[in-house]
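Q: Hi! First time doing this. I have a protein sequence and I read that you can turn it into a structure. Is that right? Here it is:
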Amino acid sequence: MRDAFTHYSAPKNISPRWSQVVEGLVSVRHKKGWSQEELADRIGCTSSLVHKWEQYKRVPSNFLLICWIDALGAQVEIKTK
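A: Yes, that's right. Below is the predicted 3D structure, encoded as structure tokens:
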């Protein structure tokens, strides 16, 4: 019975804006031809963590988000509505 609770995953509501950021970063990684493992090495984290970010299972801290962006040589643009 305990396993059913420890493996339960509630549906997550993903913001369309966050989805755009992640999809953009994944797109840059693919254009560079990098694996999740290579990106993780450049960031200084595990490849499983990168996988979780890209699958919306975890959200990086502000610091790691900046590391993710910097490692890809990407830029995030902020616009007003």
